[in-house]
Amino acid sequence: MRLRATGLLLLLTALASCSLNPKPSPPRLVNQVGILTLNAKDPEALARWYDTHLGLYSTKQTDGSWAGKTASGADNLQMSWKFVPIPTTSTSTPARVSLNVSDLEFYVNRLTEAGFPPERRANDMPGGLRAYFRDPEGNEVELVQAGTRSPEV
């Protein structure tokens, strides 16, 4: 009887220490995107496009580029971007930009009304709704509304 009581006491002690000292969650591996750089024949026009249609405000830098960053906050992943002038002889490959948004339909309607309809949509992918556009420089812009699916669009 004494052996059972000792074993039960050890078990309860072990369980109590587990609940009082849970394993710490791993640190956030990425807490900021350092910088997203897009080459542009006309960085000012591209900066204006991202500001007008996606709310990514930029200011002119002394090197001729346009740059900006999202507001920082405890729950936000901060991101910085830069639109860099390229020589007119450059044959750079267009980039792909993926942005998470809270209301995909708002941006689809906004961009469509501005003459930039989505090239395609994906409503059955894991992770949420997606729409794909091209910015004026030919870069693919993917907008994702996480955690939702739509049967028909």
In short:
The chain is of the alpha/beta class and 153 residues long. The protein is built from three helices and eight strands. The longest helix is centred in the N-terminal third of the chain and has 19 residues, at 2-20.
Task: Tell me the layout of helices and strands.
Blueprint: H1 2-20, E1 32-40, H2 43-54, E2 59-60, E3 66-69, E4 78-85, E5 96-100, H3 104-113, E6 120-122, E7 128-134, E8 140-146
Parallel strand pairs: 1-4, 5-8
Antiparallel strand pairs: 2-3, 3-4, 6-7, 7-8
Q: In words, what does this structure look like?
A:
- By secondary structure, the protein is of the alpha/beta class.
- Helix content is 27%, strand content 29%.
- The protein has three helices and eight strands; from the N terminus they run αβαββββαβββ.
- The chain has helices spanning 2-20, 43-54, 104-113, and strands at 32-40, 59-60, 66-69, 78-85, 96-100, 120-122, 128-134, 140-146.
- The strands form two sheets. A four-stranded mixed sheet has the order 1-4-3-2.
- Strand 3 and strand 4 (78-85) form a beta hairpin.
- The longest helix is centred in the first third of the chain and has 19 residues, at 2-20.
- The radius of gyration is 24 Å and the shape is globular.
- The model is unreliable at 1-19 (pLDDT under 50).
Keywords:
153 residues, alpha/beta, 8 strands
Shape: globular
From the alpha-carbon coordinates, what is the Rg to the nearest angstrom?
Answer: 24 Å
Estimate the mean pLDDT confidence: 74
Counting helices, strands and paired strands, the structural category is: alpha/beta
Characterize the largest beta sheet: strand count, sense, and whether it forms a barrel: 4 strands, mixed
Strand order of the largest sheet: 1-4-3-2
Oligomeric description of these chains: single chain
Helix content: 25-40%
User: Could you give the count of β-strands?
Assistant: 8
Q: Specify the number of helices.
A: 3
Q: Give the N-terminus to C-terminus distance in angstroms.
A: 69 Å
Q: State the low-pLDDT regions, or none.
A: 1-19
Task: Tell me what portion of residues adopts beta-strand conformation.
Answer: 25-35%
Instruction: Give the SSE string.
Output: HEHEEEEHEEE
